[in-house]
Write a structure and sequence with these properties.
The complex is a heterodimer of chains A (238) and B (305). With 238 residues, chain A is an alpha/beta fold. Chain A is built from eight helices and nine strands. Chain A has helices at residues 43-51, 89-95, 109-121, 137-151, 167-182, 194-200, 217-222, 224-232, and strands at 3-14, 17-28, 32-36, 58-62, 72-75, 155-159, 186-190, 203-206, 213-216. Chain A is globular. With 305 residues, chain B is mainly alpha-helical. Chain B has one domain: ABC transporter involved in vitamin B12 uptake, BtuC. In chain B, helix 7 (142-151) crosses helix 11 and helix 11 crosses helix 12. The relative contact order of chain B is 0.16. The chains are: A alpha/beta (238), B mainly alpha (305). Chains A and B meet through strand 5, helix 2 and helix 4 of A and helix 9, helix 10 and helix 12 of B.
Amino acid sequence: METQIICNDLVLGYDGKVVSSGVSFEVHRGDYLCIVGENGAGKSTLIKALLGLNPPISGTISAPGGLKAAAIGYLPQHTEVQKDFPASVKEIVLSGCLGKGGFSPFYTSGQKMLAARQMERLGITGMQNRCYRELSGGQKQRVLLARALCATEEVLLLDEPVAGLDPMVTKEMYGIIENLNRDGVTIIMVSHDIAAAVHYATHILHLSRTPLFFGKKEDYIKTDTGRIFTSYAGGETP
Amino acid sequence: MIAEMMDKLVMYFQYPFVQRAMVAGVLIALCSSLLGVTLVLKRFSFIGDGLSHVAFGALSLSAILNRIMLAVSGAAVQGILGVFVKNQMLLVMPVTMLVAWLLLGATKKSKIMGDASLAMLSVGSLGIGYLIMNKFSSGGNVSSDVCSTLFGSTSILTLSDFDLWMCVIMSVVVVAVFVLCYNKIFAVTFDADFATATGTRAGVYNTVIALVTAAVIVLAMNLVGSLLISGLVVFPALSAMRVFKSFKSVVISSAAISVLSAAVGIVASILLSTPVGSTIVVAQLIVFIVFSIIGIINSKGRKKV
């Protein structure tokens, strides 16, 4: 299996303050990696490092398969700015294509087709002219997912994709992500929801001050930490 | 009554200074409204106010520097200095651009440059500017000088050809930058992290926005003065956002609103003999109220359906 991302002995932090150290893991094509851990364990710092927004204090992140810097699609958490942002669904999805456009000031017909295809894929074609701020939480996530897919279909990095969604929509969202993974999209998901992580993921990275675990899900369940957290979360798979 | 007013308008519009004011006013309104949409959405509504106070400080500083240098140096240098004396913009513009870049472009690095430091910078420059003007002003009438810089009461009507050409060139540059970078500006404003992660250089576009904002604000000081500048930047965008739902329609309508209210404001100020700057701001305020009402009616109508 092709290795897409290798992280070697990362020390994560910001402004010189170390949040987490000794983080090493590999991501292969088609993996579904779930990054779990308590608040402040360095999950969002790791995301920033993977996206190239905030380089790690030390250690290396490499992409042997020739994965380009712009080849990680990103589903961020909602920001304050987006609450009242006047933008149509189509405008947002299209903006995902920008990284591929080079210096061209306008969208090409190829980019427009790509955006249309991703909207179709996530079932939001019917709402493409609606205003983003008036959509429900689940619809917003689909829009941002379509935007991320416009940027790349190689690797998706999802930051708490189900935060704030109700149980029905949460399940639906996990279903969408699972389908994308089946289509061959590598998924890296940061989540608080360990029960779901154990259910859907193929690999688990449990972050703390030092990584508690990295490996296959089947092995994670057998570890002490895995057992504590899975039983704490109800032990029941959705 | 109406015929009388029309006569008055026709008479005034025969004067070149009124024509110049109209052209410059409309162009500045267009530029500031385009930038306004981005600034409001990025939560930088107050930047116009802050930067214009910085420009005010720089303006008084440059006036005084020129006088000192003129007094010291001989006639040989006067030729070059003469340019500076006539066009204080040559100092004011770079200073304002630098501050704008520090505030907008470099925000990620410097955490101190938040809300409080903008207020500090703004009031600090205002204080220093007024102090300098009061102590060293060459003209006898300090308070009218200060008043016209702060409220732009007369300066729009005393534009030189040079000022007008500056306006035209700047507007062409602003509109061109905005059209060419439109998609990127949208992406960077909506989600800077995503844009950066997928290969758009957000820092570059933030810097471009900062520099253009500074330039527009320095020009707009002539129109409405430093105190009312935020109105030009903020009102059209806010009005448009009440009613329109997509980024493109908000940008286009806010440009239209801004141009229209600037034109109406200038005409009204001639007819009613009111100060130009404040009349334009009042016109924009009225538009904002009307659009807010339309927005409320729209959303109520949708709920019923």
